[in-house]
Design a protein that fits this description.
The protein is 45% helix and 14% strand. Helix 7 links the parallel strand 6 and strand 7. It has one domain: Rossmann fold (3-Layer(aba) Sandwich), CATH 3.40.50. It is built from 10 helices and 7 strands. With 209 residues, the protein is an alpha/beta fold. The chain binds adenosine-5'-triphosphate and magnesium ion. Magnesium ion binds next to helix 1.
Length: 209
Amino acid sequence: MQIITIAATKGGVGKTTLATALATAALVARPGIRVGLVDLDPQGSLTDWWNRRDKREPQLLRQPEGDFRFDTAGARAAGFDLIVIDCPPGFSDILADAIATADLVLIPTGPSMIDLDAIEWAETLAETFSMTRHFVLNQAIYRSRLAGRAVRELSERGHLLRQVVHHRVAIAEAMRKGLTAIEAEPTGAAARELAALWAEVGALLGRVP
Ligand SMILES: Nc1ncnc2c1ncn2[C@@H]1O[C@H](COP(=O)(O)OP(=O)(O)OP(=O)(O)O)[C@@H](O)[C@H]1O
Ligand SMILES: [Mg+2]
């Protein structure tokens, strides 16, 4: 079993969106694997998304009321192959625990100056947990100068995944319906980007995606 934690102290950068996208992309890439989603955010956005779905996969691993520590041993015993953990914004013990338990931590960020300023915390966390900073640039405007600058800056500050996720209406629209763009518009540009992101993430995890 491998665990991906999606972590960013900044709010609204796409943590929940990318958690849903990676989990569904993993299922499309390898049908039959057991993928679990974990919502450690008291806001419950991931749980709300899952409740809007009429599909049971990826499975939502419900946390006991008020408990935001993920039960890794329980998930392993239950036979999951892949777990994707969605974290709340801000610094917290919840975030620290989720990072400590992960095989891979992905740090989504938007392309703006404010977004990039907010990833300084990643330096501190990376030192504390001896982890590589794997950045995912999300909500980039296609071919914008802002996105180009963000790619350069993030490449200097850590490992930026090659696949940029652009701002796409299909991504937000699908979320409203309890789907991801991969499911709602499988031949669209958003789905292509998210599938390519999963291929890259899968390779980082050392598994054939
Ligand atoms: N690539 C994208 N294109 C278009 N809309 C996006 C994209 N990524 C995220 N969004 C939208 O941006 C908003 C914030 O995304 P999301 O909820 O995933 O962020 P978050 O980091 O989980 O936020 P929070 O910190 O509140 O948990 C949502 O409305 C989502 O639909
Ligand atoms: Mg969220």
